[in-house]
Input
Amino acid sequence: MAYFLTMEGLFYECDMETLECELLWDLKGELALPEGMWPHYKGAHTAMGRVVVCNNSYDERDYLGKHAAGRLAEWDGEMWRTIEEKPFMEAAGRRNLGCAIFATGWDEASAILKVLLNGKWRTFRLPKGSQCYDHGWLTEWTRIREIETERFMMDCHGIFYELPAQVYGGDIFPIKPVCQHLRIIPDYCSWAGTLVLAGNQNTPNADNNPLGGQPMAGLWFGKSDDLWSFGKPQGWGGPWRRSAVTAGEPSDPFLMTGFEHKCLHISQVSDGPVEFTLEADVLGDGAFATAETITVGSGEQRTHVFPPGFSAHWVRLVADRDCQATAQFIYT
Output
């Protein structure tokens, strides 16, 4: 059997011997997308006894908090379960080297990498290379692909990353940024010793772009090492953006490695000052240790500039009291 998922959310099961297909679900209704919102399913993957699907519907209404149209969801053969009501673009993985499922998405705070390990979803956060991608139409179709033998390359929100496929000790290896770009890359692969990037670089887009005389889509041929000559990895994001923060509860890990200059802007609103503990995972194995403490008064913003050479694979924050907080890292 094979499954087919259309962009509009129709989910089919197909017998590969007889080629008979059956419509199983209309996911727009099954996953309860908001009324009047267009479905925009972009990725799916099957492993570990489930099908994972990604819908990246997102526009100004999502940004303003009027509704939540994006979806990351899974089906176990009997029932659907929504993992995130946020826009997600891609789900991918391997059946060996540890068997993880990787899914990419975003929210207002940052880009997001969800990883399914041992039946449990974990959340990691990544910087955004550009906010030009903050719309369901504008993330077509960021992918995770194996472009060298057993090596994934991940395109997520304007940044290419090396993504190790291995799962050791129940954890993933840290990822590393390769370059920043503004291209629309619907897909990419290795072919005949080259790296091939599909392109959707310019379009009149229903006459909304008067300078786009004709659509320009084509193939770019090079090699994987050419990606390092694209833009220097830069971006911004963090675990919190006007978020309700619970005392003593660590934030999602945020990627730090591979960026040259780094600073953190942090603010909070509560009934008094809050001490934030910045914890760093230097080994990339989930072992966090205290690196800094930053005290922020209610209504204040503090900026912490990391010294040259300081880095870690992941960082996270812990507050010592409940508050509404924003924590954004700027990498240049």
